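Section 5: illustrative case.
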């Protein structure tokens, strides 16, 4: 039994050390090893679980690690999988923040900028691999194209993927005309800018460890569609509110996090360290990833019932194409 838990931790620790390129590359890496080779769950179940977690806030690659660990060995397995996956990135960014604070950006940043083209190539390759498993018919390909257009026009991510799910559900139910009308109306509304939604921008915590924790919790709860949606909340709540965290530090943190093996939300760890040292980095990291752990560990049985509900399969397949 102990070996099972240790193996789960070490498996996802290895994924954590190789987690370059953001969620697309990370999810593809996990899929190749645990789904195609070791077959922890079948391909369709994995895709639908991913669709479900895309709708929820939090870093989806990390949530899928917790999900797979839980499928394999219950709540402890899920916790160890999530911990193993995030631990390398947490360690790297804390070390980088320490040296950034000591040496400054002029010395540190040039060492990492050369890695950016390689990371970009990894993302493109992973996107292609994932699309091969999801865009399996012409309707899903068209929904993928629709999602790209709506994303380019600035449509809110959550609305975007819900539209994808609804359109595919209507296609399966032989209501293709209505699906086309919804797609065209969505493009029109996105073009007019009516759905550029901004929430909770008013929240500004005090300069304290509790404030950092609350900012991290807010980022973890509002990161729909990936870490980039959480960046404005971290920026408005931390930059200018904590000594030593200005806009230059903010953008340098994004650059550094983008070239290490870590979920991009680990960028918050960098800000936490720059604001309050080691304790600040640890506190904000716990807060950011707490929702991702809790959603999966507490809601797993309920989510599994949703995944087994056949009328929702077409909707979730459409969400996958939209993502």
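Designed sequence:
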């Amino acid at each position: 039994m102990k070996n099972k838990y240790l193996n789960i931790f070490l498996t996802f620790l290895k994924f954590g050390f190789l987690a370059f390129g953001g969620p697309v590359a990370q999810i593809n890496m996990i899929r190749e090893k645990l789904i195609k080779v070791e077959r922890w769950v079948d391909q369709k179940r994995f895709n639908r679980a991913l669709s479900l977690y895309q709708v929820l806030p939090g870093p989806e690659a990390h949530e899928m690690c917790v999900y797979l660990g839980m499928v394999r060995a219950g709540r402890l397995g899920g916790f160890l999988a999530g911990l193993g996956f995030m631990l390398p990135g947490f360690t790297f960014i804390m070390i980088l923040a320490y040296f950034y604070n000591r040496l400054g950006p002029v010395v540190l940043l040039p060492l990492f900028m050369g890695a950016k083209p390689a990371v970009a190539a990894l993302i493109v390759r992973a996107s292609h691999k994932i699309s091969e498993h999801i865009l399996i018919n012409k309707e899903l390909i068209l929904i993928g194209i629709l999602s790209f257009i709506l994303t380019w026009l600035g449509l809110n991510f959550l609305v975007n993927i819900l539209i994808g799910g609804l359109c595919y559900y209507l296609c399966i139910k032989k209501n293709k005309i209505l699906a086309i009308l919804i797609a065209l109306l969505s493009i029109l509304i996105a073009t007019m800018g009516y759905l550029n939604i901004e929430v909770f921008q008013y929240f500004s915590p005090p300069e304290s460890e509790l404030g950092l924790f609350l900012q991290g919790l807010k980022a973890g709860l509002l990161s729909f569609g990936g870490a980039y949606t959480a960046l404005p909340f971290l920026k408005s709540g931390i930059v200018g509110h904590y000594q030593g965290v200005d806009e230059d530090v903010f953008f340098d943190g994004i650059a550094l996090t983008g070239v290490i093996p870590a979920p991009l939300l680990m960028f918050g760890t960098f800000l936490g360290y720059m604001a309050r040292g080691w304790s600040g980095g640890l506190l904000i990291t716990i807060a950011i990833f707490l929702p991702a752990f809790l959603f999966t560990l507490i809601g797993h049985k309920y989510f599994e019932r949703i995944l087994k509900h056949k009328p929702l399969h077409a909707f979730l397949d459409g969400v996958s194409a939209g993502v």
